[in-house]
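[step 3/7] fold_predict: job queued, chain A
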Amino acid sequence: MVSVRVIASRAEFDESCRALADGNGPLAIDAERASGFTYSQRAYLIQIHRRNAGTFLFDPPAIGEMSALTALGHDTEWVLHAASQDLACLREVGIVPRQIFDTELSARLLGIERVGLGTVLAEVLDIHLAKEHSAADWSTRPLPDSWLAYAASDVDHLVDLRDALDKRLIADGKDGFAREEFDAVLHRPEKPASDEPWRRLSGLHALRHPRQLAVARSLWLSRDALARERDIAPGRLIPDASIVAAAGATIGSRSDLAKLKAFVGRASRPELDRWWTALSEGLSVTELPATRVASDSIPQQRSWPEKNPAAAARLSAARTLISECAEELHMPIENLVSPGPLREVCWAPPVAISQESLTAALISQGVRSWQAARVAPLLENAFLLSEAQIDEASDELAT
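[step 4/7] structure written:
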């Protein structure tokens, strides 16, 4: 196997930037994180390829700030596969693309069923990659040569793939759709942090009482602090199931906690004092969390027929028409319109139903203009159809 060198010093980084500047065309870029292994979502390896320059593998923790690459690609297109997954960790080290081409999104718009990079490369360019290291712990140092070769292959063919997909998009009349999608991904705002992130604990629904929730909250906060300090994924210290089990059990002492068979994980016994302290705080705290959290969001869809039958009828009729349109366009229905905005507009439509009002409502929910132009007329027909069906059903009941 050919050894692949990792650039890990500032001098090597500057030299690589000069080499990339001498290349031409788009810059293909990918990042490897250590999701499931580390607390942070930082990039532990960044791969860049440019024609007539070659492929470069960078070690961000060793290099630090990498904004020189942004200056290098100031007016240049960056090519990524599933850009939404990598943009945040790239920005963290100063790499801020101004225009992108997303090969995964392009594949979706073209109706390619399986959109992983390896699958798309095989279908479009007949290039077959081994994907055996996709779930590796990229915080490992030194990185094995086989991992580095795998990482380099992720960008080696990305510009060629971009060109082939762009030709297909133009041929299908979808290049305008794609540009809007790329721009939306590039400028999508970050989701605001949750006020109570501990409520995302898997299995939390099994805890019915406020005191149990207080214990779960205390254990989660203690685990999160330790995970952040050590940069370890929280679930690798103690899993969610252990927190829920401890919160739901009757525990009166440190010994009781140690004997709890469901309380497992690599840090369950070495950090037992920490967990007992957290559990004790949860048992004694006076400010208990609510068992249910008030929400301004629309109800779960399964409750619509009972809570808002008109909305349920609108959504059912809309989905039928939108599904037919997506099939005609040869793309997944969720790429024609996301489920969330569609539900919002069906639940609370404009007072006056028209293509113009529905277009405005969709765009206010983040739907792109190309999507709204196709979906709004379908919603108008669906809403009018569902109203007619409801009126007809009411007339039948009245007689």
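[step 5/7] annotate
The CA atoms of residues 26 and 76 lie 6 Å apart.
The chain has three domains: 6-186, 197-284, 301-398.
exit 0
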